[in-house]
TrEMBL record:
InterPro entries to which the protein is assigned, alphabetical: Elp3/MiaA/NifB-like_rSAM, Methylthiotransferase, Methylthiotransferase_CS, Methylthiotransferase_N, Methylthiotransferase_N_sf, MiaB_methiolase, rSAM, rSAM_horseshoe
Primary residence: cytoplasm
Quaternary structure annotation from Swiss-Prot or TrEMBL: Monomer.
Record has Signal as a keyword: no
Sorted UniProt keywords: 4Fe-4S, Cytoplasm, Iron, Iron-sulfur, Metal-binding, S-adenosyl-L-methionine, Transferase, tRNA processing
Catalysis: reaction(s): N(6)-dimethylallyladenosine(37) in tRNA + (sulfur carrier)-SH + AH2 + 2 S-adenosyl-L-methionine = 2-methylsulfanyl-N(6)-dimethylallyladenosine(37) in tRNA + (sulfur carrier)-H + 5'-deoxyadenosine + L-methionine + A + S-adenosyl-L-homocysteine + 2 H(+)
Residue numbers binding [4Fe-4S] cluster 1: C39, C75, C109
Gene3D superfamilies, per database record: Methylthiotransferase, N-terminal domain, tm_1862 like domain
Name of the protein described by the UniProt record: tRNA-2-methylthio-N(6)-dimethylallyladenosine synthase
EC number: 2.8.4.3
Top enzyme class: transferase
Domain MTTase N-terminal: 30-146
Residues of the TRAM domain: 407-470
Annotated source species: Chitinophaga caseinilytica
Length: 472
């Protein structure tokens, strides 16, 4: 995801900002340029925004210079994420001076957090739109076009954009994200998301099924079901006749076709159920990969974070996953230097990592976010150099585990979904294993979207290098 992220073996993961690549901009009278920051849900929201803008005669462009409208879909998760956006806004200043009708809009979590303050602080911004207000973009753009400052940051208890078909930006035509819920009801004390995204709500399963089925029919072969806390997905229809849990939803998506791979993110350790794990075990096309953020290995810190589980409870969850899904890949998020964290707490985090031996980890130094419970209740008292040193220690420990995890795969054969041409060589393709590891192999006559059996000959810290030994 963001600044302190350690990308260990995910060559294909999107970078911090992605500009659009919708090839049909010619057919639209006006052009918009969008950059997305933060989590996958934000990237998916940009695709919803693109869909709304298309209906208003705006086509996507990758070239800021030819855009009439520039949108930054922003993230507030850590301070650095916000600084990046502020920096980016100053870069648009020149274009704005040259083109009087050029509009700049801020969308997403930073818009929600700063609200009208944004318009006051950043003179370069014409438009501020929160994550639940994208349907009002057309009227806001019109308003901004007349020189008024336009803003809508209302959060909603219902909005899921369920009926809007996202326009896939920068798509490889093989893998896609499908949002199944919005918001978050957990109040992890360090986290800004409940404030920027509002209350949790689950999207109608019929619209999720329709979107996933349509993707499959258009040649996509993998969907990732997205939510801040997917395991708490729960849909009850208006009549109260139909209830759908996450396990059931995932099963329904998996049943669209055995050729459609299903992934999901993120699971909160307190909510992932045996039913989810058994559903994964029953379906070969639900990938054996679980992102299970631990945040800290110290029960005392977990309590201060309001994660609602203890170290022991989390470790039992890891055991349970390994029992029901032997060999399942597990990844995590870790925060170092949360308020009052001692060396002993830090050692507890290292020992959880030693136990879990994560295949992949995203590791961050704690960044205090204004308005969060931690900012109000506790002092951000771990010095910056201590946070950095602890971060370096967990990164070093994890690097060893992830390398071991890669090396373990050498000599084995995996089913890989071909996603495209390798970034490093035109003569090679890349795809991912069930465990979400990137594998590269010779192109021959293979195509994107095909499944192949790849025997792994070698590896680097981030990539498996193999030979195709069969087609599926
Ligand atoms: N909903 C997901 C995570 C969302 S944010 C979950 O509950 O796991 C992604 C990650 O950013 C978090 O898991 C956490 O590790 C990190 N993060 C969130 N707030 C942070 C903060 N204030 N400082 C540093 N890292 C933070
Ligand atoms: Fe933030 Fe916690 Fe919600 Fe994740 S579960 S988005 S960390 S409040
Ligand atoms: Fe960032 Fe908002 Fe996602 S704060 S991580 S873009 S929900």
């Amino acid at each position: 995801m963001l600044e302190t992220v350690q990308k260990v073996h995910d060559e294909s993961r999107q970078g911090e900002a992605i500009a659009p690549n919708s090839g049909d901009s010619q057919t639209y009278a006006k052009k918009f340029y969008i950059e997305s920051y933060g989590c996958q849900m934000n990237f998916n929201d940009s695709e919803i925004v693109a869909s709304i803008l298309n209906t208003q005669g705006f086509g996507a462009t990758r070239n800021v210079e030819e855009a009439d409208l520039v949108l930054l879909n922003t993230c507030s998760i850590r301070e650095k994420a916000e600084q990046t956006v502020r920096q980016r806004l100053t870069e648009f200043k020149k274009t704005k001076q040259q083109k009087p009708h050029f509009l700049v809009g801020v969308l997403g979590c930073m818009a929600e957090r700063l609200k009208s303050k944004f318009l006051e602080e950043e003179k370069l911004v014409d438009l501020v739109v929160g994550p639940d207000a994208y349907r009002t973009l057309p009227s806001l753009i019109e308003e901004a076009g007349t020189g008024q400052k336009a803003i809508n940051v209302l959060l909603s208890r219902e909005e899921t954009y369920g009926d809007i078909s996202p326009v896939r930006l920068d798509s490889n035509g093989v893998t896609a994200f499908v949002s199944i819920m919005r918001g978050c009801n957990n109040m992890c004390t360090f986290c800004v998301v409940p404030f920027t995204r509002g209350r949790e709500r689950s999207r109608d399963p019929h619209s999720i099924m329709a979107e996933a089925t349509d993707l499959f029919e258009r040649g996509y072969r993998e969907v990732t079901l997205l939510g801040q806390n997917v395991d708490s997905y729960y849909f009850v229809d208006e009549a109260g006749n139909e209830t759908v849990t996450f396990a059931r939803l995932m099963e329904k998506v998996a049943e669209i076709s055995p050729l459609l791979r299903v992934r999901f993110s993120t699971s909160h350790p307190k909510d992932i159920t045996d039913e989810v794990l058994h559903t994964m075990a029953r379906h070969e096309n639900i990938c054996n990969y679980i992102h299970l953020p631990v945040q800290s290995g110290s029960t005392r810190i977990l309590q201060l974070m309001n994660r609602t589980y203890t170290r022991e409870w989390y470790l039992k969850k890891i055991d349970r996953i390994r029992e029901i899904l032997p060999g399942c890949a597990i990844s995590t998020d870790v925060i170092t230097g949360f308020c009052t964290e001692t060396e002993e707490d830090h050692q507890d985090t290292l020992s959880v990592m030693e136990y879990a031996k994560y295949d992949l980890a995203y590791m961050f130094a704690y960044s205090e976010r204004p308005g969060t419970l931690a900012a109000r209740r506790y002092q951000d008292d771990v010095p910056e150099d201590v946070k950095k040193r602890r971060l370096a220690e967990i990164v070093a420990l994890h690097r060893g585990h992830s390398l071991d995890s890669m090396r373990k795969d050498v000599g084995k054969t995996f089913k890989v979904l071909v996603e495209g041409t390798s970034k490093k060589s035109d003569t090679q393709l890349f795809g991912r294993t069930d465990h979400n590891k990137v594998a590269v192999f010779d192109k021959s006559d293979l195509r994107k979207g095909e499944y192949v059996m790849v025997k792994i000959d070698d590896c680097t810290a981030g990539t498996l290098i193999g030979t195709v030994v069969g087609r599926c």
